[in-house]
Amino acid sequence: MAKVIIRGVGQLNGPVQIDLTLEMDDVQARSFLGSKREEVITATIAAHYPGVKINTNQIGINVLLK
User: Fold this and answer.
1) Domain of 23, in residue numbers
2) Which pTM does this prediction carry?
3) Which of 39, 54, 60, 63 sits at 20 to 30 Å (Cα–Cα) from 30?
4) Are 42 and 56 in contact, with CB atoms under 8 Å apart?
């Protein structure tokens, strides 16, 4: 199991703090580091923070593989 920590700021009628910690399998966690990482970040944040607009360059990702 890997831990993925997502932190940043989004926009929805004002700034929205994004602070999300997820546990998932190693293969899925590595997708946050791959070539399509922006798509993965956008989809994950859209699922947990619906309606919030983000700029993927302003989102920090930490992947802790065990």
Assistant:
1) 2-65
2) 0.88
3) 54
4) yes
The distance of Cα 64 from the centroid of its chain, to the nearest Å, equals 13
| CA neighbor of 53 nearest in space, from 5, 1, 14, 19 | 14
What's the residue count for the chain? 66
Residue 14 is classified by DSSP as S
Rounded distance, CA 45 to CA 53, Å?
Answer: 9
Span 3-57, pLDDT tens digits: 999 999 999 999 999 999 999 999 999 999 989 999 999 999 999 999 999 999 9
Any idea what the CATH number is for the domain that residue 37 is in?
Answer: 3.10.20
